[in-house]
Amino acid sequence: MKKLLTLLMLAGVFTFTALNVHAQDFSDSDSTEVAADSVAGDGFAEETQEAQPEEVAAEEVFVEEESSPGFHQVVKQQFIDGGPTFMGIVLACLILGLAIAIERIIHLNMASTNTNKLLSDVEDALGSGGPEAAKEVCRNTRGPVASIFTQGLMRMSEGIEMVEKSIIAYGSVEMGRLERGMIWISLFISLAPMLGFMGTVIGMIDAFDAIAEAGDVSPALVADGIKVALLTTVGGLIVAVILQLFYNYLVSKVDSIVNSMEDASISLVDLLVKHNLSR
Question: How confident is the model at residue 2 (pLDDT cuts 50, 70, 90)?
Fold first, then answer.
């Protein structure tokens, strides 16, 4: 719960910062247009004066730079055109989903264990120091595989059957821990396109309301309304695609760790049987 609240707070801060940056960029673009208009007025007043080659070259460079904006500027402008209400919510879904996905990636990478080396260390510890030494090796190794080994070794004195039951029960617990947070990523994958479609429907309603108030179908009016409406759908689909890639990677990572846990558990049971027979 604390992690979820922290992620929500971070998402709120990031969203608020992003909206402020977009608003500042929008106001800066307005001030740039006003300054350009004033410069154009001054140039019109001084038409009688002879134009200098340096000023003409500078104006040509300025026109070329203005005609080819950067990618981030295009994205910001499209975000502003789509409306801050639904685009802000879609952006919050992206930030929250990425925060959870990154946390899960870090956790799963830390949960990965070299099972062959762990089994070799446990076997050496059983041969030299018995179950207690093997438990100490598992406690000093991080990851779900080592935790399952610890639970199995703790039931070693009760027989192999109890060891198997303990491994199966604790394996389910560790699997639940590995999959924790995945449901939230799946939620944002489904929620982002739905919010985009909702923004599109509301935008279309606003466009038809504008047509009804104007009393005439203006191509420019209809085109602008439809463009603004469709931008929310595009934003939602982009967020869903990005989060879906992370989700599939996490699912494959969890499956790999679970398979490693199952193979290592079988090897541990065989190792304990071998150790009991050799005593």
Answer: very low
The rounded distance, in Å, linking the Cα atoms of 260 and 21 is: 46
**What pLDDT score does 88 carry?**
83
143: left (phi over 0), alpha (psi -120 to 50) or beta: left
- Predicted confidence band at 67 (pLDDT cuts at 50, 70, 90)? low
pLDDT of residue 243: 94
What DSSP line would sit under the chain, residue for residue? -HHHHHHHHHHHHHHHHHHHHHHHHHHHHHHHHHHHHHHHHHHHHTTTSPPPHHHHHHHHHHHHHHHS--HHHHHHHHHHHH-HHHHHHHHHHHHHHHHHHHHHHHHHHHH---HHHHHHHHHHHHHHH-HHHHHHHHHTS-SHHHHHHHHHHHTGGG-HHHHHHHHHHHHHHHHHHHTTTHHHHHHHHHHHHHHHHHHHHHHHHHHHHHHHHHTS--HHHHHHHHHHHHHHHHHHHHHHHHHHHHHHHHHHHHHHHHHHHHHHHHHHHHHHHHHHHH-
Within 13 Å, how many C-alpha atoms sit on residue 84's CB side? Answer: 10
pLDDT digits (tens, 9 = 90+) for 77-102: 666 666 677 788 888 899 999 999 99
Residue with tokens 């039931």: 155
Given a cut of 70, whether residue 60 has pLDDT beyond it is: no
What is the average per-residue pLDDT within 69-81? 64
Q: What does pTM read for this prediction? A: 0.69
| Nearest alpha carbon to residue 7 among 110, 146, 82, 101 | 101
Please, are residues 192 and 243 in contact by the beta-carbon 8 Å criterion? yes
Nearest-angstrom CA–CA distance, 91 and 188: 11
Q: Tokens standing for 190?
A: 């489904």
Q: Where are the domains of the chain?
A: 110-179+260-278
